[in-house]
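Checklist before submission:
- one chain only
- standard amino acids only
- sequence pasted in full

Submission:
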Amino acid sequence: MAAQSDAVSAEEQLAGFLAKYAPGIQQLAHEVRSRLQVLCPGATELVYDNYAGLVIGFGASERPSEAVLSIAIRPTWVTLCFLWGVNLPDPHGILRGSGNQVRNIRLASPADLDDEPVRVLIREAVARSRPPFDPGQPPQLIIRSVSAKQRPRRQG
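Returned file contents:
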């Protein structure tokens, strides 16, 4: 699917993608997204409704390579991913993962984003963004891709 430029239409599409999930996961994803919008002013959100789940990336531009954070939504959990997490200082040892680049935190509730160690990681990821985030830029939501074949979005 081509990139979507109409914000209302993109919001409606995202609502439709989220509606496939159980109510608790929908609510968690919605609240986490809302909090990240506040923590990442000027972010461009890139949406991928992939085979395995829904991903919403946050970056300084429309270029996927410039995203620094994402929310990965699966049937039973929501994860905050730090796309360059391997380079982030993590003195509290809260980042999970062992790959070459990405680290993550599985979120039990939106309040997890209020924990100071998590806030520090988010601030650091945004501060390291190249190009930098522009808080004066109006928010953008872009649907980047929708997979024709998808795993079930609800557990069961």
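Reviewer check: The two ends are 29 Å apart (CA to CA).
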